[in-house]
Design brief:
mainly beta; 41 strands; Immunoglobulin-like; eight-stranded antiparallel beta sheet
Length: 587
């Protein structure tokens, strides 16, 4: 049963947009690029078998700096058959000892749950989420997670990450896509004196059930006057949904913005305890589903009620607990209203107070499909059967060290190598290795490790005898216990002395979030080939360019296709000459 919540969150047009925010947070602050180079080991807690998953792609298999995660798998059989549901907000509910805050014996480091994240099943692609309630004492979590897509054909999985002392709160209204014009998680008595865009439940004057919004005609101040005409004064397709529990037998309003003089909509319950849904045109002429038909609601029982109006199909319909209730054709079109929206009473006459409980009220400016509505009910009525929660996995670095960067730069006939570490535990030795093919490596030098450190440290090594052409470098890390791990591989091009060659500057900015630019020159007048590719060799962009000898040229890249975070290379080649630079894309 869905009946919990803490705050009333109104979706406004400015709040719908996804915020540009730092996705990876690490000890190095602005240097936090994610741990691109550390091999990881996962130990399954409370399970006799070890779950091992070494990183497959430059340390990007898990989120940087998070110590634990759980796998959550949505049961495909719980998703209504039909089209895939894109952007579906899934309710995740669980209570777990590990999700208690550290001060209460758990593993979440923030008392507000700020170090909780959700990713796709790849373990690194972040999903928008909203934490509705988090209890640090009990480890209870209720969160809404925006899924890219779910369907009855495929059981989708996500990861819940937690335990990161550097994480900031990223719970976001972006969880609800732009079609949601209002989403209210209701609890307690509401004050009409608080602006709608930041409406919170008042914790005073609770009734018996403290977990839901309480309506009573004896205390009209409990009914919110939601002055949101620009968001919920909808003129066209609409879907309204709410959880309701009836205590009496009378006509009562769930939600309405009708004035009696012009348009608006109204979702209500009649004296026979049946759902009514009505819209009005600009002349206040009504169209409604038949009030004497449909399912009769029982007292003291929670129901999930939904109403839709389709402007294209000229239909109104109601649903109860995800199933079709009743419908009607109409030639009336929904028009705008001058009345402020209210929950729990009729706004124009201050009558038809709701006698019971209301929770989770939503308004969308589209018609949700029957599959969507049925899946919403299945998810919210019993989230524990809608998904399976996995055991806690401890994310333990083989050597407790975070290698933030590893870069190389040709300087005449030598190569300067640089790397940064965020923390080191029992780190004994760095071995610098070089290869001419990127596969077979030989050691060319060593540097002592810091042993134990929790500061950002910088290291350098100069290769005085690099190969002519492309040199591939990596760093091997060895702990005092003999454990070994490797950095990412960095290519550096070295040209023969005295010959003209391509000159390419460092990308700006690097790492980049969306855009970057690189300046370069060609040794000869003519054509050259420019290629932008991933570390795995997948070509993102390839083009032929023309330029004058030594004339400054500029390459500008704008990411309009959602480039995945990771390591990339940009190369410029003319005849036998080729130069390459490394870039890092972060979220």
């Amino acid at each position: 049963m869905k009946k919990r919540s803490t705050k009333l969150v109104t979706k406004t047009k400015t709040k719908v947009a996804v915020q540009n925010r730092m996705r990876f947070v690490a000890a190095a602050g602005a240097l936090a690029l994610g741990v691109f180079s550390v091999a990881l080991l996962y130990n399954t807690l409370g399970n006799s078998k070890e779950s091992i998953a070494n990183n497959k792609w430059n340390g990007m298999e898990t989120l940087a700096e998070f110590k634990f995660r759980k796998k959550i798998t949505i049961d495909a059989s719980q998703v209504s058959q039909g089209e895939a549901l894109k952007g579906f907000p899934v309710m995740v509910v669980l209570k777990d000892e590990d999700l208690k805050s550290a001060s209460h014996g758990g593993k979440v480091l923030s008392e507000q749950g700020a170090d909780i994240r959700f990713t796709k099943d790849d373990g690194v692609s972040l999903l928008d989420y909203e934490i509705e309630t988090y209890n640090p004492e009990t480890g209870e979590l209720l969160a809404w997670v925006k899924m890219e897509s779910i369907s009855s054909e495929d059981s989708k999985s996500v990861f819940l990450y937690f335990s990161n002392k550097f994480a900031a709160n990223e719970s976001s209204a972006a969880t609800w896509n732009k079609t949601y014009k209002a989403v209210w998680h209701l609890k307690g008595a509401l004050s009409t004196k608080i602006p709608h865009a930041n409406q919170f439940a008042d914790n005073s004057d609770f009734k018996d059930d403290k977990e839901v919004y309480i309506a009573s005609e004896k205390n009209a101040s409990q009914f919110p006057c939601l002055n949101t005409p620009e968001d919920v004064d909808i003129t066209g397709d609409i879907t309204i949904s709410a959880w309701v529990l009836l205590s009496g037998k009378k006509e009562q309003t769930i939600i309405s913005n009708q004035s009696g003089f012009n348009g608006g909509y109204r979702l209500a319950i009649n004296k026979d305890r049946r759902i009514e849904f009505e819209i009005r045109n600009e002349k206040s002429e009504p169209a409604a589903v038949a009030s004497k038909e449909g399912i009769q609601l029982e007292k003291d029982t929670w129901y999930y009620v939904t109403a839709i109006y389709s402007d294209d199909a000229d239909t109104l319909a109601t649903y109860i607990n995800g199933d079709f209730d009743k419908g009607v054709k109409t030639d009336i079109s929904l028009a705008g209203s001058t009345e402020a929206l209210q929950i729990g009473r009729e706004p124009s006459k201050k009558i038809y107070y709701f006698d019971g409980l209301i929770d989770e009220v939503r308004i969308s400016n589209i018609v949700h499909s029957p599959n969507w509505i049925k899946t919403e009910y299945a998810n919210q009525i019993n989230p524990k059967t809608f998904m399976q929660i996995g055991v806690t996995e401890a994310i333990v670095q083989q050597i407790s060290m975070s290698l933030l960067t590893f870069d190389g730069e040709a300087q005449g006939n030598t190569v300067e190598l640089k790397w940064l570490t965020a923390n080191e535990v029992d780190n004994d030795l760095f071995s610098i290795e070089r290869s001419e093919n990127g596969i077979d490596f030989k050691e060319i030098g060593t540097k002592p490790g810091a042993g134990n450190s929790n500061e950002v440290l910088s290291y350098r090594y100069r290769d005085n005898s690099p190969l002519i052409g492309t040199n591939y470098y990596r760093v091997k890390l060895t702990s005092s216990y003999g454990n070994v791990e490797y950095s990412m591989i960095t290519p550096v091009q070295v040209e023969p002395a005295g010959e003209a060659d391509i000159k390419i500057s460092s990308p700006q900015p690097n790492p980049f979030v969306k855009d970057f630019q690189v300046e370069y020159t060609l040794p000869k007048t003519g054509t050259a080939q420019l290629k932008f590719m991933s570390v795995t060799g997948d070509v993102v962009l390839e083009e032929q360019i023309n330029g004058e000898k030594d004339a400054p040229l500029k390459f500008y890249y704008k990411d309009d296709n959602g480039l995945k975070p990771g390591v990339y290379f940009l190369s410029v080649a003319q005849e036998e000459d080729k130069k390459m630079v490394k870039l890092i894309k972060r979220l």
